[in-house]
Structure formats: structure tokens, C-alpha cells
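User: Let's play a game. I give you a shape written as C-alpha cells, and you guess the letters that built it. Ready? Here's round one.
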């Protein structure tokens, strides 16, 4: 009876030990699972945060990017050029101010159905010598003699307007003068029609606008 009792006690101790081991293993397994889930959640949070930062960094306020003559760039609602030949690219017209600086600077409309009405923009754009209406063939620009005189670095600078077929230019007759073609000029292998406003004497070419021959011109 004593030996049987000892065997029973040993069995109970073995069962108790087995249960304890099983409990410990289960607890360890649960802790491991929770840790893995927490790590996965943290990784997901990091990935999501990284994506949000990347998307925010690629967003351009005002849709304006300027590439300066030295290769440096600036983007934002307002941009300012250098003393060299800079290029300003806009994807929309919701900008605050564009200053091309010195040099022969180009403003490019890089979008579709953009109507650049200089008469309503006031002093938002300045020191631009070339208006490039882009390659979509759906963009347009409107200006009068006052804007033609004020847009470039000085009234003596030529204002060139170029773009793809279908792009449109509207020249407004104001200040007691009307626009008319007075000849053609070749610039970088492209033919431009020269528009002169009769408010200025014929030998005064200040404010003349050179429009690439393939563009549609409306005089109103």
C-alpha cells in the first residue's frame, strides 16, 4: 500500500509538472504571437507614415516649378528666377507670383485647357520673355499692349509666344490702338508673325509681339 501510494504521488507530481510545462509553453506562445502582431502593426504604421510623407513631399503648391540657369530648382506658390535664362513650368494657374528675373526667361503652360489671361493677373507675372503654350494644343493666352510692354524685363525686349498647333493667342485692341501683322521673323528656325499695335508709331517696335506662325491668333 505504501509503494502504491508513492507511485500515485509520483504520478500526480508528473502530471502537475506536465501541466505546468504545458501552461508555460502556451503562455510563451501567446506572448510570441502578441509580440509578432505588435511588430507587424508597427511595421504597417511605419509604411503608411512613410507613404504619407512621400506623397506630401511630391505635392507642389500652386503647381509652379522654376529651373534656374544653374540647374537649381524651386517650387511653390511664388518663384523667383536668377540672372540667367530660367524656365518656369506651371501645371495650373493657382499661383501667387512668378518673377523670371534677368535673362531670357520662359513660362511654360504644362497642362490642358489653361487660359492665361494676363489682363486679370495684374503683377502676378513679370520678367518673362517667352510664353510657351505647351504641347497639348488646348492652351491660350490673352494680353493687350500694356501687358506686352510690362511682361518682359524691359519694353525693348521682344515677347515671343509659341506652342503646339491649336494653341490660341488673343490680342486685345486697347489704349486707342489696334493690332496688325507687320512682317515675319525667324527665331531658332521657327517663323514668327510680328504683331504691332497702332497706338505706337510704325518705327517704334516697343510692345511688338512675335507669335509662332502655326498658332491661332484672334484680334479683338
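Assistant: Ready! My guess for every position:
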Amino acid at each position: 500500500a505504501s509503494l502504491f501510494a508513492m507511485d500515485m504521488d509520483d504520478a500526480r507530481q508528473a502530471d502537475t509538472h506536465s501541466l505546468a510545462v504545458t501552461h508555460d509553453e502556451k503562455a510563451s506562445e501567446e506572448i510570441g504571437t502578441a509580440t509578432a502582431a505588435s511588430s507587424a502593426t508597427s511595421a504597417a504604421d511605419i509604411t503608411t507614415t512613410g507613404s504619407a510623407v512621400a506623397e506630401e513631399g511630391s505635392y507642389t503648391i500652386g503647381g509652379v516649378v522654376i529651373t534656374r540657369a544653374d540647374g537649381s530648382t524651386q517650387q511653390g506658390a511664388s518663384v523667383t528666377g536668377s540672372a540667367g535664362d530660367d524656365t518656369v513650368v506651371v501645371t495650373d494657374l493657382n499661383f501667387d507670383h512668378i518673377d523670371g528675373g534677368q535673362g531670357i526667361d520662359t513660362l511654360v503652360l504644362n497642362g490642358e485647357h489653361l487660359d492665361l489671361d494676363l489682363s486679370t493677373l495684374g503683377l502676378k507675372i513679370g520678367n518673362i520673355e517667352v510664353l510657351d503654350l505647351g504641347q497639348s494644343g488646348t492652351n491660350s493666352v490673352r494680353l493687350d499692349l500694356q501687358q506686352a510692354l510690362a511682361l518682359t524685363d524691359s519694353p525693348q525686349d521682344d515677347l515671343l509666344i509659341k506652342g503646339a498647333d491649336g494653341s490660341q493667342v488673343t490680342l486685345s485692341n486697347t489704349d486707342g490702338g489696334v493690332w496688325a501683322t507687320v512682317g515675319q521673323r525667324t527665331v531658332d528656325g521657327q517663323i514668327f508673325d510680328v504683331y504691332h499695335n497702332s497706338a505706337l508709331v510704325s518705327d517704334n517696335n516697343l510692345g511688338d509681339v512675335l507669335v509662332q506662325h502655326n498658332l491661332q491668333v484672334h484680334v479683338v
